[in-house]
Specification:
Layout: H1 3-23, H2 27-39, H3 44-56, H4 68-79, H5 81-87
Amino acid sequence: MSYLGKNNVRIALGALGLLGALFTVAWVPLACMALLAVRFRAWEVLGIGLLVDFLWLPTGSFFFPLPLFTIAGIVLVWGLEPLRTEFLISE
């Protein structure tokens, strides 16, 4: 896959994740975050997770005080780094 094709896929997944955070259910941005984190060193995963938390996290709730999507983004980006370096060709 060419470098331009890689960038197009990354941009498309990032845009789908951002639009999914705004207009769709929560699993769409989560799926985009996972796909981005598996294939790329995608720091936009953290931005998408933060946006979802700001938009959808209930404020003042005792049961959901944690920013779950931001934590999931951190785990995906830094937790999958050894997997990316082991199995994928470096960029």
